[in-house]
């Protein structure tokens, strides 16, 4: 099953609460497919490892994903936040695969500081839920995944204005319940745009505008 999804936005605050960084992050779900064909699995929600920034991922999509009982059913992907929810249009499952060409975008605010080890960036977590569901049967639980988008961001604030002002990363999530055996493969990304960011030092106030994009 292929999906397309976007999540966005960050604002960074220095130790004193100054220095604001606004951005958009787009998240795109690319595929749902069986575990036996899964070549790379990673965790974005709780892993202590930072995701890598990559170019546009090229994904090989197997021909099977959902159990045969899902054929001709329509599924959608939910991206739920504390302040709202975005949902893809329903797509019919065919031979275990549902393909989405849709992108969803949201701008949010994230705060950070240089209070981490060795003056590394420490971001305030920005969680949301990502999950697939059968259209018209929300009581059918296929598993929910809690994601922290700040795992996408560089280790230092300075990197946001240099070579890591944009990045993309692909990970995967296993479905459960009636869809056990299928996997949702997701690409996350962000892009910093606008004037060259200048991050505050010694309580200097600086506002920066960023937008994010993922493919």
From TrEMBL:
Pfam families attached to this UniProt entry: NT-C2
InterPro entries associated with the record: NT-C2 (IPR019448), PMI1-like (IPR039614)
Compositional bias annotation for Polar residues: 40-52
Transmembrane segments: none
PROSITE patterns: C2_NT (PS51840)
Domain C2 NT-type per the UniProt entry, residue ranges: 45-192
Region (Disordered): 40-63
Protein name (record): PROTEIN PLASTID MOVEMENT IMPAIRED 1-RELATED 1
Lineage of source species: Eukaryota, Viridiplantae, Streptophyta, Embryophyta, Tracheophyta
